[in-house]
Specification:
The protein is mainly alpha-helical. It has helices at 34-61, 66-70, 74-80; strands at 3-5, 12-14. The protein folds into two domains: 1-30, no CATH class; 33-87, no CATH class. 46% of the residues lie in helices and 7% in strands. Strands 1-2 form a two-stranded antiparallel sheet. It is elongated and about 65 Å long. This is Zinc ribbon domain-containing protein. Keywords: Membrane, Transmembrane, Transmembrane helix. The chain crosses the membrane at residues 38-58.
């Protein structure tokens, strides 16, 4: 671990430091490794896939009556629970 000179303030800084402790000058940038790059690529592909699936699912909603998919007809509810009055 050697001491280096900051290019902005001429202060002494450790060679392991990312920024200067005196002025905040960035001395070196952290470069992601191989695993970080693979994870970033996987995240991007996954996010794009989710967006495509969402668009395709939202496109199908307009074709059908959205309430008809999840609702039970009133006659069926009345036969299961006779205390419910039909309009």
């Amino acid at each position: 671990m050697a001491l280096l000179m900051c290019t902005d303030c001429q202060g002494t800084v450790s060679s392991n430091a990312m920024t200067c402790v005196h002025c905040g000058n960035i001395l070196r940038k952290d470069v992601p490794g191989f695993l970080g790059s693979i994870l970033r690529l996987f995240y991007a592909v996954f996010t794009i896939g989710i967006v495509i699936v969402a668009i395709l699912l939202l496109e199908d909603v307009g074709r059908y009556n959205p309430g008809a998919v999840f609702m039970v007809p009133l006659k069926r509810v009345a036969s299961i629970r006779p205390h419910i009055l039909l309009p």
